[in-house]
Predict the 3D structure of the following.
Amino acid sequence: MSNWYIDDYITDASIITAHPTVSPRSYANDTCVCGYSSTCSSPAFIDGWLVPGFRVGCNPIQSLLQSTLECLYNVTCIDKIKPNDSTSHVIFRALDSTRSTSTILVQSLVDDLMVDRWETNVVYEYYYKACGPLYCIYSLDLRFDKVYVLTTIISLSGGLTVTLKLVLPLAVKIGRYIAMYRRRLLVRSTVTIIA
């Protein structure tokens, strides 16, 4: 089965393909065409019987992800879809309905990694009992390579340059102010007025 089919003329004698054309399959009453979307699908039928929850479509994986496992929860449904050859010794059993719902999409199951429920039980005491560590030591070896030392020196000198450019003008102004203040005090103390 393909997602494309060849249009031809059928006579009672043979198939005549004078000008064959290839057309994409369509699903959902011709509203979804495989040539435009790979997610087109419709309910699955086997020998005219609707398989509950199963879908067929353009892309088998997309169809499976859009399906539910509803049929696999019912023994009668499983009997209808399983192979009827007598050589098969495989026993098919219905899924347990207490584990998950039958109407959940396969896409949801895949999104949940096929896990119904995560249970995390972390007991550190058991770990320490099993391993029995007396103490824990780790060491971290750092080696200063040439590039690291060079970039550190450049960053320090750059930071020092910026700091000095900001601080030195202010320090010079404060120093001048203090020097001028002392000169004024010195001049005032040496000048005495005689009357």
User: Anything to note?
Assistant: The chain is about 35% helix and 20% strand.
